[in-house]
């Protein structure tokens, strides 16, 4: 161009060129950093040039536009302090132009002053753009308190933008003589409004102010916003209601969230938690199944509007309390709980299917990495054992044995010769090297024993008593290698008197011992080795007094040995215990087998009654 | 002496000096893939012993991976990972290489084979349908898994794992600069009882050995856990340049990248060896560090009396530095650059017992490699194990030679086998050639040392001189006291009907050092201020004069054209500096020094200013005619017409056209007392009754000022008239008048009179008047500096006048600023309208000349 252009025009053109370039590039470049990196530097350079001259009204619009664009880039790159500095400088320059003296160091005071002084100036609109960005920075850095303090101004900002007839500025923005904006501030302000409502709701919810949060969230849910964000408002309302112990209403809200956005998996997950709380197992299983299929379904990403990818809602909503509310376990975790639920609640064939699906998924090449998962998926051997137990319950002992074989063969070479189990309370929870290794050693031993136990159960089920006895014996031999150590005392063989807490290794150990001894005792009974049977069953009762099978069979052996009164007492004692409920929290492979030879309780009672009539004098 | 290695050179490749590592990949078929460190991959056919194809990638390659002709070749380029299917590429464009039999086909790899568009991938490893890449992001090693459903389709990210970089790993000091070139090493291992993932039973890694090992199941479980073993998962092993060995089981994902061991030096190589012939699995993992640290990881078997299996780490140290390595069953081959060595891993390992003795034996074995006497090996690949027991290795030498190294059969006792007598002759020949090699290498090294010494001496001298100069500049020495300085003289010459102003510049070496070869005198000529019409950029011209030896006390005289007549951009700044070019001295060393920002040392000497006075052509008397030649007359005529026309257009024809162009003038008043004290004191002996006016003019025109002197040509007679006519560089006549007179000065109420000399400058050219005014003022300023201190009694400060003048000046400054800003924003306003006010401001500025006392 030969025509010498004025600086103002030149700067406008440079700005527009940068905006168009960044908009043109947004489709190709995958990551955000690479995208805005050079752009922000370019914008900043341009801004420095413009700020080289004193603030005057005729070029202030351009300057504020470039400040806005630069700050959008900086914010999108999470360079918040740089962006805030620029905003501060810009407001100060505006103040310089309108009022002469100002001495505000507090950003809020500064903003109020600028809004006040720019009220009459045509720059007002541009100052509001910058305020919009400041809002975004506050939100992205979780300064919800500041936003709350500045609520009125921000609200009037949204009002101003929405009352302005849409498209008046934007339509003429295509021409080259007005500076272009990198991101539509109206779009941004609307997003900020709902995102603020969501973030505040989550914050209040985590602080326990459910009812206050609820009202805000419900007003937010009537705003016009993308489906994803609206679904979040419903979801959070549901969580508020759940906290206020109104599960049915909470479920309603979750349903609304799902209707709004079918990809809102957190709503599904939260519903399963509510169902679990309410004890509605069938519904819980149903919801888990739905959740799993949704998670497996390929994620369809919503097409983003052009120019809006820079400050996405995900970028603005980063508070800890919200992300913990939105977190959903991985598909594999969901599948595991689904399988476990099915097995525990009698839907055996389904449960087995799910377990097999889970194992297949774990063996497939294309599994997605999940970084932090709470609660984590159980270790692989444990999953194998659970699946094996499910298969056995479904009366598929051959498959169960195959799984157990894998576990035992993979652990057999690593078995320690002796393990000392320290008292749980004193165990350091930190994952130090030695501790983790010790822990691993104990777990390997417990997995191997459980595998033998299940194999024993399988043989019992197939009435191969000899094999069953072999496997139970292997199991018992491993178990006796464990010594229990209380701090200050020498290691000793654990017994049932020790206080056993649920979920500890000691508890597992005692259960394994009781079950394996009971199993061997029952097998001995079947091969008519009554003496051995009685010894094992009594030892079993010692280790695990609540073992029903051991109690009943112990009575039976006593009866066969002619010790009828002792037998009757034994039976009575067993019946008097109500223990079934405690099994719920244990791994399913530690449950008492329901597949072995059974004794008919009514038959036993009849025997006791017969015993009672002819010989009351004997007692 | 045992049998020796036979080295056979297959081909020679250009070895680029770039920083990218050389890569060599041997595939199971006949092809060898080679990358010598740039963006090209050569496909070398080992059967035909020639390069068949050249693949050209869009950028330098970091890593290369291929298994055989059927599977695709993966290449980590600077802008992403490319996946190239050679067969389909070669079959498609048959027309491309018509004479395929003679010259290699050249294939340009386009972006359509870009499968992972992520920058900065350092290493890659395909496992089945997965692709593993390792890159360095900020301070994190990032391992990323990709999967693809179909080939040549963009891969999708499955997950990524990162590990913070550990700093502070000791590096060999000479190796420091090559550190960044080290590429992380990636391999994967499977448990021996699980089925391998890839289609081929073994595949070869870029560094030349089987990249997929099947490890003894016990060792696998001990190292990588029960979960990985149960899931039959392959485990990715990576050796990082910060010395750590990390692993990641592929299934179940999510356990994260964990550290297995740390060598505390850059990991060069990871491999597995199987010294027991009975089982098909490898019994131990070996890792080799840059400085020769070896770690061997094996199972410590449970004894018969009890105990359990544990993983045993045995560390040793071999003489380094290690350039590359490869493994063959139980022998680890590695190159230090000056020798190829072999390490027997089986020694001491066969003992089943876990006692002190075997342990010591193992450590000892790890420390005693035996030499194979092959030097300059850069990259190593195992080629094959012949039936006779010979091992063939493929290597790429430092000089870019592709060589096949045949290692003779080893006997069980670990010594090399005796060669049959028929081969003794051949052995001696080999030996002699090896001696020749070593001799050549030694003489190479000797000459290298010599030249380095010379360079060091040279550098020392340069350092001395730079120190001298920088120390000078610190102390603000006067120009006269500088050890290196420049002074200059102007002179007019006439060439091709045009007048040229020449500058003769003299570099004076009064230091005790010799300016040796490699120094260059650089003179930059640039106008101090530039006129806006001349162009936006500041036009400066650079002259450099390389010289041989400038001994102490010698001078170097160079002459350069300063400007042609009619170029009015005075005053001109002449910056002198001496430059030493390091690149000419260091040559290839400089190329290696990445930290060196510029290859030159530039030392500024002093800056000279050529002003209007020095550019004057003086005619002592009144000019005979206004314009002394026709050429100029026409020029002046055109100029005057133009001025008139423009003036008419500007003022709107209001004023009558003048016959003569407007005269501009400026005056400088200096008190004669000052002049007498300074100027006349110097040469009072020559003239008892000096004329102040004449001596002032004489001084102005002929005295050296700031190192520049006006050359006298023809007019060297002393100034005899107080009116001087001269021609400026733009051809305009200039009249310089010096008159002595009395000036009444109003000083705090009462009037005083003061004798002053008034220098008046008159010309029709505004530029000339301004320039000369500036020059004269500048001279007088320096005069004031040299003036002896006078008592404050002479004159009190003209405070009132001064204040008024200051106010005026401030006002004018404001006006100028306003004009400048409005100029920036206005397009419509014409330049004429702009300059009008500025000119007015300027005149106002000069209206009331200050009296210099």
TrEMBL record, chain A:
GO terms for cellular component: Fanconi anaemia nuclear complex. One of its GO terms (biological process) is interstrand cross-link repair. It comes from the Eukaryota. Gene3D superfamilies: Tetratricopeptide repeat domain. InterPro entries: FANCG, TPR-like_helical_dom_sf, TPR_rpt. This is Fanconi anemia group G protein.
Automatic annotation (TrEMBL), chain B:
GO terms for biological process: interstrand cross-link repair. This is Fanconi anemia core complex-associated protein 100. It comes from the Eukaryota. InterPro entries: Faap100. One of its GO terms (cellular component) is Fanconi anaemia nuclear complex. It holds the Pfam family FANCAA. It comes from Xyrichtys novacula.
């Amino acid at each position: 161009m030969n025509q010498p252009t004025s600086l103002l025009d030149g700067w406008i053109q440079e700005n527009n060129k940068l905006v168009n370039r960044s908009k043109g590039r947004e489709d190709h470049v995958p990551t955000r950093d690479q995208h805005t990196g050079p752009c922000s530097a370019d914008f900043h350079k341009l801004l420095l040039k413009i700020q080289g001259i004193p603030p005057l009204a005729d070029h202030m619009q351009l300057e504020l536009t470039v400040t806005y664009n630069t700050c959008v880039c900086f914010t999108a790159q999470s360079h918040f302090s740089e962006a805030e500095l620029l905003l501060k400088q810009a407001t100060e320059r505006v103040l310089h132009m309108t009022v002469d003296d100002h001495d505000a160091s507090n950003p809020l005071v500064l903003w109020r002053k600028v809004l006040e002084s720019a009220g009459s100036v045509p720059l007002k609109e541009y100052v509001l753009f910058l305020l919009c960005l400041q809002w975004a920075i506050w939100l992205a850095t979780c300064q919800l308190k500041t936003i709350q303090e500045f609520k009125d101004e921000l609200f009037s900002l949204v009002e101003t933008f929405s009352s302005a007839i849409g498209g008046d500025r934007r339509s003429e923005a295509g021409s080259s003589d007005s500076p272009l904006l990198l991101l539509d501030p109206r779009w941004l302000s609307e997003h900020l409004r709902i995102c603020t409502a969501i973030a505040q709701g989550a914050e209040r919810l985590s602080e326990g102010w459910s009812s206050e949060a609820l009202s805000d969230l419900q007003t937010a849910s009537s705003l016009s916003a993308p489906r994803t964000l609206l679904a979040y408002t419903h979801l959070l309302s549901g969580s508020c209601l759940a906290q206020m112990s109104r599960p049915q209403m909470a479920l309603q809200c979750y349903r609304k969230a799902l209707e709004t956005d079918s990809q809102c998996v957190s709503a599904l997950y939260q519903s399963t938690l509510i169902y679990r709380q309410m004890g509605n197992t069938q519904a819980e299983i149903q919801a888990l199944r739905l959740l799993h299929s949704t998670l497996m379904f390929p994620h369809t990403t919503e097409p983003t509007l052009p120019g809006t990818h820079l400050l996405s809602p995900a970028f603005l909503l980063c508070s800890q309390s919200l992300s913990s509310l939105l977190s959903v376990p991985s598909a594999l975790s969901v599948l595991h709980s689904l399988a476990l639920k099915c097995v525990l609640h009698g839907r055996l064939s389904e449960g087995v299917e799910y377990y097999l699906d889970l194992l297949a998924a774990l063996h497939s090449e294309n599994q997605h990495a999940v970084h932090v998962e709470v609660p984590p998926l159980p270790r692989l051997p444990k999953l194998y054992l659970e699946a094996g137990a499910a298969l056995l319950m479904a009366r598929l002992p051959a498959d169960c044995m195959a799984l157990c074989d894998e576990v035992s063969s993979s652990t057999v070479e690593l078995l320690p010769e002796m393990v000392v189990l320290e008292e749980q309370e004193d165990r350091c929870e930190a994952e130090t090297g030695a501790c983790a290794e010790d822990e691993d050693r104990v777990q390997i031993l417990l997995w191997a024993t459980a595998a033998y136990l299940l194999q024993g159960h399988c043989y019992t089920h197939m009435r191969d008593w000899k094999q069953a006895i072999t496997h139970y014996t292997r199991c018992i031999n491993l178990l006796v290698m464990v010594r229990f150590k209380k701090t200050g005392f020498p290691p000793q063989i654990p017994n049932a008197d020790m206080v056993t807490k649920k979920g500890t290794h000691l508890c597992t150990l005692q259960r394994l011992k009781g079950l394996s001894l009971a199993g061997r005792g029952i097998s001995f009974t079947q091969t008519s080795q009554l003496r051995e049977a009685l010894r094992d069953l009594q030892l079993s009762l010692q280790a695990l007094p609540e073992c029903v099978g051991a109690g009943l069979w112990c009575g039976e052996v006593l009866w066969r040995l002619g010790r009828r009164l002792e037998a009757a007492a034994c039976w009575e004692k067993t019946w008097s215990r109500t223990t079934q409920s405690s099994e719920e929290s244990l791994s399913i492979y530690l449950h008492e087998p329901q597949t072995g030879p059974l004794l008919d309780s009514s038959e036993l009672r009849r025997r006791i009654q017969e015993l009672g009539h002819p010989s009351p004098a004997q007692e | 002496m045992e049998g020796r290695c036979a080295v056979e050179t297959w081909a020679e490749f250009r070895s680029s000096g770039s920083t990218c590592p050389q890569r060599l990949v041997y595939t199971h078929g006949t092809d060898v893939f080679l990358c010598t460190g740039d963006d090209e991959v050569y496909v070398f056919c080992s059967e035909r012993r020639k390069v068949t194809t050249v693949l050209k990638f869009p950028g330098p390659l970091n890593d290369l991976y291929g298994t055989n002709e059927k599977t695709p070749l993966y290449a980590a380029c600077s802008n992403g990972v490319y996946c190239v299917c050679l067969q389909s590429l070669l079959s498609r464009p048959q027309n491309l290489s018509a004479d395929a039999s003679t010259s290699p086909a050249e294939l340009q790899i386009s972006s359509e084979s870009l499968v992972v568009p992520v920058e900065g991938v350092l290493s890659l490893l395909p496992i089945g349908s997965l692709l593993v890449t390792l890159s360095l992001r900020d301070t994190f090693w990032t391992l990323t898994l990709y999967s693809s459903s179909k080939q040549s389709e963009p891969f999708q990210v499955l997950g990524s794992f990162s590990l913070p970089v550990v700093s502070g790993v000791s590096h060999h000091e000479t190796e420091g600069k090559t550190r960044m070139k080290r590429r992380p090493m990636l391999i994967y291992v499977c448990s021996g009882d699980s089925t391998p993932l890839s289609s081929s039973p073994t595949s070869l890694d870029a560094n030349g050995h089987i990249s997929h090992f099947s490890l003894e199941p016990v060792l696998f479980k001990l190292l990588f856990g029960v979960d990985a073993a149960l899931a039959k998962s392959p485990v990715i092993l990576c050796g990082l340049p910060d010395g750590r060995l990390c692993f990641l089981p592929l299934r179940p994902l999510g356990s994260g990248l964990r550290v297995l061991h740390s060598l505390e030096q850059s990991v060069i190589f990871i491999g597995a060896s199987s010294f027991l012939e009975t089982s098909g699995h490898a019994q131990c993992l070996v890792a080799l560090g840059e400085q020769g640290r070896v770690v061997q990881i094996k199972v410590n078997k449970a004894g018969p009396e009890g105990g359990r299996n544990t993983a045993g780490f045995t560390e040793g140290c071999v003489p380094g530095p290690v350039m590359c390595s490869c493994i063959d069953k139980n022998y680890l081959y590695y190159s230090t650059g000056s020798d190829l060595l072999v390490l027997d891993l089986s020694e001491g390992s066969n003992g089943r017992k876990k006692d002190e003795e075997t342990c010591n034996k193992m450590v000892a074995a790890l420390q005693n490699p035996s030499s194979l006497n092959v030097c300059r090996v850069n990259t190593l690949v195992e080629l094959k194990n012949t039936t006779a027991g010979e091992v063939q290795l493929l290597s790429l030498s430092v000089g870019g030679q592709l060589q096949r190294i045949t290692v003779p059969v080893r006997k069980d006792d670990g010594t090399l086998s005796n060669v049959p007598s028929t081969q003794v002759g051949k052995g001696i020949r080999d030996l002699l050639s090896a001696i020749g090699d070593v001799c050549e290498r030694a003489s190479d090294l000797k000459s290298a040392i010599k030249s380095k010494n010379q360079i060091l001496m040279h550098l020392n001298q340069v350092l001395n001189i730079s120190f001298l100069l920088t120390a000078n500049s610190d102390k603000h020495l006067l120009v006269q006291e500088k050890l290196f300085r420049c002074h200059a003289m102007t002179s007019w010459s006439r060439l091709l009907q045009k007048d040229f102003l020449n500058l003769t510049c003299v570099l004076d070496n009064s230091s005790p050092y010799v300016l040796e070869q490699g120094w260059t005198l650089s003179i930059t000529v640039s106008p101090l201020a530039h006129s806006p019409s001349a162009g936006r950029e500041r036009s400066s011209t650079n002259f450099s004069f390389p010289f041989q030896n400038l001994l102490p006390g010698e001078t170097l005289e160079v002459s350069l054209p300063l400007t042609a007549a009619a170029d009015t951009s005075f005053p001109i700044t002449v910056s002198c500096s001496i430059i030493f070019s390091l690149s000419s001295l260091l040559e290839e060393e400089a190329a290696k020094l990445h930290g060196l920002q510029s290859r030159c040392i530039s030392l500024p000497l002093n800056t000279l200013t050529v002003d209007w006075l020095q550019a004057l052509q003086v005619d002592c008397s009144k000019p005979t005619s206004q314009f002394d030649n026709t050429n100029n007359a026409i020029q002046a005529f055109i100029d005057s017409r133009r001025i008139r026309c423009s003036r008419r257009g500007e003022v709107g024809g209001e004023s009558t056209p003048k016959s003569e162009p407007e005269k501009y003038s400026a005056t400088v008043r200096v008190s004669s007392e000052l002049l007498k004290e300074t100027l006349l004191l110097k040469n009072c002996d020559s003239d008892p009754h000096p004329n102040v006016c004449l001596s002032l003019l004489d001084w102005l025109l002929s005295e050296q000022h700031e190192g520049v002197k006006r050359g006298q040509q023809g007019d060297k007679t002393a100034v005899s008239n107080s009116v001087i006519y001269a021609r400026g560089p733009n051809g305009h006549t200039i009249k310089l008048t010096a008159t002595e007179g009395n000036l009444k000065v109003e000083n705090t109420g009462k009037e005083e009179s003061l004798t002053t000399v008034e220098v008046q400058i008159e010309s029709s050219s505004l530029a000339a008047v301004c320039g000369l005014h500036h020059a004269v003022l500048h001279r007088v300023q320096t005069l004031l500096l040299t003036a002896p201190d006078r008592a404050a009694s002479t004159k009190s400060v003209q405070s009132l006048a001064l204040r008024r003048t200051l106010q005026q000046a401030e006002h004018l400054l404001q006006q100028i600023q306003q004009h400048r800003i409005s100029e920036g924003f206005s397009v419509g306003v014409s330049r004429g309208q702009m300059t009008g006010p500025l000119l007015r401001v300027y005149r106002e500025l000069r209206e009331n000349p200050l009296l210099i006392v």
